[in-house]
């Protein structure tokens, strides 16, 4: 049973300060993931290791070789921290850098080297991907968010559990999480969502929902949950849904 889990950058880092990791959170998250690591692909956000330098260099609108290199190298550092913490928690994590295995067309994934990821899963290794910069056939280069990677991988691997951890309890209406959400619910919500605390170049909650609604259209449901609350990640990996389920409209 393939599972795809995303941990948002807002949990792993302080999104308001450049390259500011939260080591205690990274360690706790690694331990929770270690409780249920079979057939899992992990994707983490870039947080302040990606969004701040992307914004500084004008990515993705501007083509900046230096911006690409600096942003990529920075998100790789966060990936190193995550991989190291997972290793210490007793699993066999493997870094997978989207910059080297993803091709975009107009900002959308056109090609992805899936076979190495599949082989890792078969060999009981845990692929650990992250939001990254990527080359783009039409725009030279762009940004591939962890959310887009989650939707792509969940679709390509026909995942049965898709869980997206954020720092809120789900999609909130008047401060309370919706239990279910379909595309029909989006228009009335649109004014209230989309903001992210700190710098975000990939669309915050709105961008996330658009990816997950597309995935739901393909018949794959997902859950948006609060990964900052202890126990929720372990629960989500077992298919327990604390948060908002993103479903296909009937
Ligand atoms: C963004 O990744 C990637 C870059 C800015 C390079 P995400 O969109 O997945 O990151 P978070 O979860 O919002 O931090």
List keywords for this structure.
single chain, 250 residues, alpha/beta, Carbamate kinase, 8-stranded mixed β-sheet, 4-stranded mixed β-sheet, 38% helix, 23% strand, binds 3-methylbut-3-enyl trihydrogen diphosphate
Question: Would you count the extended β strands for me?
Answer: 14
Mean of residue pLDDT? 94
What radius of gyration results from the CA coordinates? 17 Å
Percent in helix: 25-40%
Structural shape: globular
Order of helices and strands: EHHEHHEHEEHEEEHEEEEHHEHE
Q: Major sheet, described briefly?
A: 8 strands, mixed
**Strand ordering within the main sheet:** 3-6-2-1-9-13-14-12
Low-pLDDT residue intervals, each spanning 5 or more residues: none
CATH superfamily label: Acetylglutamate kinase-like
Task: Report the total helices.
Answer: 10
Named at the architecture level, the CATH assignment is 3-Layer(aba) Sandwich
The CATH topology label is Carbamate kinase
Quaternary class: single chain
Structural class: alpha/beta
Write out the distinct hetero groups bound to the structure.
3-methylbut-3-enyl trihydrogen diphosphate
The domain tally reads 1
Alpha carbon gap, first and last residue:
25 Å
For the record, the CATH class is Alpha Beta
